[in-house]
Structure formats: structure tokens, C-alpha cells
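#dry-run=false #mode=assembly
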Amino acid sequence: MFELLNSHYNYFAVMLLLGIGLYMLIESQNLVKKVIGMNIFQTGIFLFFITLAFRAGGNPPIIKEGGGPYVSPLPHVLILTAIVVGVSLTAVALALIIRIYTEYGTLDEDKLKQLYYD
Amino acid sequence: MIEQLPVLLVVLPIVGGSIPLVASLVSDRAGWPVATLTLVGQAGLAGLLAWTVSASGTVSYAVGGFAAPYGIELVVDGLSGAVALLVAVVSLGVLAYARQAGPHSNAFYGLYLLLVAGLTGMTVTGDVFNLYVFLEITGLAAYGLVASGRDASAAVAALKYLIIGTVGASLYLLGVGYLLAATGTLNMADLASKLGEMAAYDSTLVLTAFGLMIGGLTVKVALFPLHTWQPDAYANAPDTVSAFISALVSTVSAYALARLLFSVFTVEFLAAVPVARWALVGLACVSIIAGSALAVSQDSVQRMLAYSSVSQFGLVIAGFAIATPLAVVGATVHLLGHAVMKGGLFAATGVIERKTGATTVNGYAGMGSRVPLSAFSFAVLSLAMVGVPPAVGFVGKWYIVLGAVNAENWPVVAVLLASTLLTLAYFARLVERLYFAEATIHSEETPAEAPVTDGSGQAVSFGMIAVVVVAAALAVALTAAVPAFEQVLRDTLLPILNQ
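#status=ok
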């Protein structure tokens, strides 16, 4: 068990982040905290991809530098794109939350539900 | 020229979508003409592409000149060509509705074109990560469009849609990671050939990837337990947006699901892992029943139509999961037909609400004589959705049921037949109210009954009614096009389905 933890700690971190993020997303009553939870959830996925790229003793994937074996550059590129997507999503979510707050005057999900269904 | 068409279809609406924002410096109303011009071009290109594909087979394009397994490849075959054409034509049609119904801001048309770009991108891409990017572009544009209503409830619905939609897309991305770990590639065709070899179909890695990717997409399609964002989003968005996203967003997601199923995981996977097929068929069947039951219990017509989508997409996904050529052709026909019918129905609810103030099932009583043309179109579209024979809704359902019978999948056959009855249950109720019930809203009450909520005025233009009538006519006339379309689809599907 300890050995597995020692060799795969990144994957444990991924699962922890995914769990924390999803729990916050579902459980928190505060809309802003929900968005933070969404970000943590996505960060877990980013870490998962970056961990995939790792290779023991690998060099940075620049042809000049000392030669192979290289770490895989592909997941880094993918995650760069995914981070941009995540930032845009956060921006849109926060813009919507500002609008909700100005209209309803609350960020609490339960109170919002009452106002929403009236 | 022809091989550049797939990428042009994505670039054109993105470029067109950025023009209205710049044009705001000059005029506040430049959005609509720019969007119309762009989408006329888009429809022309999509038509040319679909025609080329049906005549001479698959068209593919390597983005940036990087060859296929390493670079991003755009691939258009008979199936994606048809969906790309549907996206272009429906978005052009909804513009005729938006002219009067609004919203009129330039930013709205920017988002509108961005959504077209995202949907087209999802349709033509041949790369699973690229699909994720377009999925999120589609999502972002759709959240913005839903929130474009003046009412604050639209923002609440949009936030709910955003949070659930993002979780769905993120799960899909996680699944892409598992596939990348299993095979080291992201190209769909390359994945299909490597999946059986490099990683066994029933290995945990591949099964997890399947579960995450398909699960993520079913959120976007809005199958039963994952549909909760959808009724709020459809009911609170402006009418133009409801018609647009109800016709296209779930449709293209369902197409993407089919693409994953057949072009990435392939039918061999479904044959090797029966539990995956059963899980998908089971989810679809639950969705059919639960969606219909929820639709019957709704009071608001728009919410009823939204739950009806949950049920109809269950039908489509069931057809894909059965995966015999007949069932897949039926599912595709129903997928495209549903887009026209549901878009038309939402457009009709918008017209009826503006003219009479009626939004609920009871409010629709006696409206058959008040708004004859819209009410008649609504009735035709409803019956088409139920699957009354000359309409396109019948053909799709018929093929799906035949496919299920051929596959000797009796529980599914029973659910499919029951679903038709359930669809009848909620649409017949409305049609009966429209024509055979005493009016509950009287004409003199109209001004009080219909307060200006989204600030776009209550007037109904010729274009709005024309959209509704054309949708109703198409729901019947498309049946005539099915045999030709079926031939094209078979040419595309038979190699994919290995039959």
C-alpha cells in the first residue's frame, strides 16, 4: 500500500482533487464556492494529463537538449488548451453570478431557489 | 477547394461571429444582416459539401498541414455531412424568427454564430480532443445565449446549465485521458484500429474511458438522470434561443455520441463487452419512460416539450446502441427529424404566447380558432412527433423498432412501442385542448395577460409564422427524402458497422 502511494502519489492527488471538487460543487450552498469546486475538479483532470506525460529519466522534449528519452509533449499542449477553456468557463460563470446577485441579492442556493420558484 | 470545405465550415461562422462585435461601433442593429449573410454562405457550403460527400465519398482535411494521426483531422462522411447541413439550415431558419422575436443586440448574433461554429466543429472533427474543445465552445455559446433573456431567471437557468454541462464535458475530457493512456493517440480512425490491439476491449482502462466519455456526452444530450439542466434552460431562454438550442445542441451531442460509439469504440467493442451495450440501452429506455412520464405531468407547454426531448433522445440513443444498420438509419432519421420538429414546436409556442399570452396546457384551450395557422402547425408537428404515418417522425421510429425486432431485443421493442403511446398521451392532451376545449383566456384579456417580459415586443412577424409553417411542412415532406438519404447513410454506415 505504502509502496503504491510512493510510486503513484500523483494519481492519488488527482483522485483527491476530483473528489474535493465534485463534493464542493454538489454540497456547497454558495454559488461562488460551487464555481471554485468546479475549478478544483478541472484542476484534478489537468494534473491527470500532466502525470500521463511523465516518464522516468525523460528530458524536456526539445530536440537539441541531450537527446531522448523525452517526456511526451502532447498532454502539455492539450492541457494548455483545456486551461484556456476552464478560464473562459469561470469568467462566464462569475458574470452570471454577478447578474444573479444584482437581481436576487443572494448567493445562497436555498434562498435563490425560493425566490426563483416564486 | 472541396478538401478545404470542412475547415471553411468552421472558420466562416467564427469570422462572421466576430464582425457584429466590431460593427457595434457603427450600428446597434448590424448583427442580423451579418449573421444572415454568413449563414447563407454557410448553408451553401454545407450543401455543396453534403452533395460532394453523397456523390464521391468521404472528404478529409489535415488542419495546419500536419498529417492525420499526429495532427488534427477533419472528416466528413455521409452522416456528418447530413448533420452539418442540418446545423446550417436550421440556424438560418431560426434567424428568420429572430428578426422580429429578438434579442436584437449585436453581441447576441456574435454568440449565435459562435454556437454555429461550435456545433459544426463537433460535427466535422475526427479527433477526440478537438471534439472536447468544440463541445466547450458550443457549451459556452449556449450558456451565453440562454442568459440573454431579460428575465433574471434566465441567468439562474444558464448557471445551472453551465455547472452541469461543465461537469459533463470534464468527464468526457477525463475519458479522453484514459484513451490517450491506453493507445497514445487521439485521432478517431487511429483509435479505432489501436483499441482492440494495444488495449483489450474489456480492460479496465478502456471500459473506464467508455463510461466517462459516453457518460459525459449523455449529460449534454440530456438523458434522464442527467437532464436536470435542460427544462429550465429551454423554458427560461428567449423563444429564439429555445427554438435554436432545442433543435441543435442536444442533436449534435447525440451525433457525437454515435460517432464515438461507431468510429472510436466500434461495434466490435459493443460485441465484446455486452455490458456496455446493455448499460447504454438501459439508460436510453429509462430515459424514454421517465421523460414521457415527466412530460405528461407538466403544466407549462415549454417544459413539457423539454421533457419530451429527454424521451425522444432516449429513443435515438437506443437506436444507436442496438447498432444494426436498420436501427442506426432509423436513429439518424429520427435525430434529424426531431431537430426540425422540436425547433418548430418551440417556435410555435413563442408565436402563440405572443399572440394570446397562453403558456400553459390549460391556457392553450380553444386557441385553435384564435391563432389558426400556428395552432394547426403546432398540431401537425405534435402528431409528427408522435409518429403518425406520413410524417418523418414515423419513419425514424419505424426503422428503430424494426432494427430492434431484427436484433431480437424484445424488451427494447416493448419500451419503444410504449413510448409512442406515452408521446401520444402528452401531445394528444394539447391538441385536444387546442381544438375541442372552451377557451380559458379571452381575447380582451390579452394585453394584461401578456406583459412585455423580454422587451422585444409582442408583435408577430410574417417571418416567425413562416418558420413555424415551414417546419410543419418539412416534418411531413422530409419523409419523401428518406429513401435517398437512407442510401447515402447505408454507404457510410455499412463499412463502419462491418456488415
